[in-house]
Amino acid sequence: MVSSGNAALFGSSHDDTSGAALDLADPAAFVEHDPHAYWDRMRRGDPVRWHPPVGSRPGFWAVARHRDVQDCYKDAARLSSARGTVLDVLLRGGDSAGGRMLAVMDRPRHRELRQVMLRAFSPRVLGHVAEAVRRRADALVTAVVGAGESDAARDIADHLPLNTVCDLLELPASDRPQLLEWNKRALSSESAEGDPFDALEARNEILSYFADVVRERRRRPGEDVISMIADARVEGEPMTEDDLALNCYSLILGGDESTRVTTIGALHALGTHEEQWHRLRTGEAAVRTAVEEVLRWVTPAMHFARTATVDLRIGPAEVSAGDIVTLWNISANNDPAVFTRPRRFDVGRDPNPHLALGHGPHFCLGAFLGRLELSAVLDSLVRRVRRIDILREPPRVYSNFLFGHSALHLRLD
Ligand code: HEM
Questions:
Q1: What is the CATH number of the domain that holds 91?
Q2: Residue 158 lies in a domain
Q3: Is residue 17 in some structural domain?
Q4: pTM of the prediction?
Q5: Of the candidates 272, 255, 403, which has an alpha carbon nearest to the alpha carbon of residue 330?
Q6: Residue 2 has pLDDT above 50, yes or no
Q7: Of 79, 98, 132, 157, which residue is most buried, by most CB within 10 angstroms?
Q8: Is 64 in a helix, a strand, or coil?
Q9: Which family does it belong to (predicted)?
């Protein structure tokens, strides 16, 4: 391991709001501070920073510049996803789904499985999902307009992404409330009070639910996505039921939380930037560019991570085989080398080469669907809403991975 030299700058205290002492492995650092001052300093002075080990916790690299983050995403041959792609998981020894679930898999298996799963996102499959997304988004927004105070998380964002994935997987409406409840519990370890055992139990419930669905679809195949994957061969072999269940779950994991917090983030950003809401509402800026700016502004997945398979150079740093490398989308998406006035929320920003959906071989599989859901919500807001009043400062999700708010009290008029 060769450090980029500034490890001494790095401490464990969170008192310094300028960001000099943020511990990126600690969710508290992200909730207690606005880390943008930290990213600015890092991009300028130490863009690939080594975070030394703390006790038994391994050290890791943090990459801050847009160009370096993008290059790392492309370099799947030397930067592996198979041990895990989230810092917390890597620091705890790696992902048990490594090599079995699309997001945490390397070539050649990744390329084959991705081809199979991409069929789930073909125009034929997405055609009927798209119509349902637009209808659902419009009904959810309409129910809140003029209804006084509401929590946009509970009343709008909770319902759209999970139902969209369930439409894609053709899961019956009667199963969905249970899936939503499990999914919330599965992610509850991301709050400071969350119980990790309860979260694990909920994850197991979801996996065993999908194992049953997979068995059923193998017996009676249909035209749906699960039947499609269940029938496919990867590296010449049919997939096991456990691996199929994992990959169904990965669509919920990938599709639910990120889209949910981005929807909440969109309402928050538009409600707190009146002039931008005006530009969008009057058609001066398009929904298409607003969706991209919301994705950049929120950057719900603040980082993704890789493990170096060989010694390599990233920017000024010499990284050793086996090192954990974290790619900070949140920093890349605010890099002034790429974005003019990055801390300005600008619904007309174009071009907008943000990395909120990743880049390269693991680029978000659900990008089309995520964008579709966000445009459906914005379209409906533009048609039905004049004023967005945010009534309270919303609580932040407790995480160093996911950026977002767990509730948003507002009034739509
Ligand atoms: C991958 C973000 C919506 C499924 C990714 C990655 C990012 C991302 C950054 C790259 C991960 C990496 O490189 O390791 C987002 C955001 C979304 C969103 C911000 C919404 C606003 C969705 C939806 C689905 C989905 C709706 C599915 C229905 C996936 C899957 C992968 C992925 C399966 C793994 C792809 C692979 O490894 O080849 N997403 N995502 N995502 N996303 Fe999304």
A1: 1.10.630.10
A2: yes
A3: no
A4: 0.94
A5: 403
A6: no
A7: 157
A8: coil
A9: Belongs to the cytochrome P450 family.
